[in-house]
Amino acid sequence: xxxxxxxxxxxxxxxxxxxxxxxxxxxxxxxxxxxxxxxxxxxxxxxxxxxxxxxxxxxxxxxxxxxxxxxxxxxxxxxxxxxxxxxxxxxxxxxxxxxxxxxxxxxxxxxxxxxxxxxxxxxxxxxxxxxxxxxxxxxxxxxxxxxxxxxxxxxxxxxxxxxxxxxxxxxxxxxxxxxxxxxxxxxxxxxxxxxxxxxxxxxxxxxxxxxxxxxxxxxxxxxxxxxxxxxxxxxxxxxxxxxxxxxxxxxxxxxxxxxxxxxxxxxxxxxxxxxxxxxxxxxxxxxxxxxxxxxxxxxxxxxxxxxxxxxxxxxxxxxxxxxxxxxxxxxxxxxxxxxxxxxxxxxxxxxxxxxxxxxxxxxxxxxxxxxxxxxxxxxxxxxxxxxxxxxxxxxxxxxxxxxxxxxxxxxxxxxxxxx
Length: 419
Prior knowledge:
By secondary structure, the protein is of the alpha/beta class. It has 13 helices and 15 strands. The strands form three sheets. Strands 5-6-7-11-12-13-14-15 form an eight-stranded mixed beta barrel, surrounded by six helices. It has a four-stranded antiparallel sheet with strand order 3-2-1-4. Strands 8-9-10 form a three-stranded antiparallel sheet. The radius of gyration is 21 Å and the shape is globular. The mean pLDDT is about 95.
């Protein structure tokens, strides 16, 4: 069934960090509106599609998005309004052609992705199916993903001395999505109590995790293991495992990785991850090395890839061409999936299909600047990737995604767990 668009409109709204972003409303020709909120990252890869900001220091410190809003209300609306599209791929290609750049820098990836997400919702609405079913891959079974809760924030996500950016808990051993969310919330509460009891502040970082002033990542890992036990769960893959996102590009300078004041070579950094994986129930490491350190990534994958999921984010930026190269060069075994990194839903699905064909895992992800939009929850379910990270089990913009998964589980008989 085709989609005929009446209009597309955007407004400038605030994301969860109090910075401007876009909300896009697409109206179908029968009068039905669908809406999309556009996320925005803090820790970003250099090859991400370009997020267009106004640069006017008199508004939001230059972070305004009125130019991108104008592109939606002007050029994009002009080419979409009144047209009928047979599928999302054709609509997304029209947006790519209109922009005319490799990085979506003319219209702005933030403008394009908002329209693409809204269009996916519109196609699902016209077809009369849930969004996750419309997005479903023909080659995999839809699946409720293991949620990866970011319970301790550091790096670019928090004003503390912790260089590693994200410490996540993943209820891999939970029997259902609802029980996984319960485990995440209970471990989160136990961790709060432990941190407070040790005299640490329990303020929150950008993604809802605690931001204690702890500098050594191993000290945080010890607290997580203890909190998992305090909450009555077993640390590890039979219960609640740990996932890391060091975001190493953020602490890689002058050829060295600098963690808590210690400078390490690539091989020393890899050795540290080996020690961490041996001592703690860490099942996944994302961006363990810098995006420019391709040779190091290959060694890391050779040394740890049989024991640990190694997820590329900044190095891959959800780009199908980059991911294809990375698969050939065997630099990881999984990809982080962020729709706004590449700019359209169709390109995102293409990247995920490449990973599936190569036997790579995928973890769908939010951004540090989020809205209440729950698109990524449906994306994770429909593609059957088995993994989703969208922050702590706290703050409305994060919890909205987990609650959406609970709703899907209540309505559908779908498997839960890693793919």
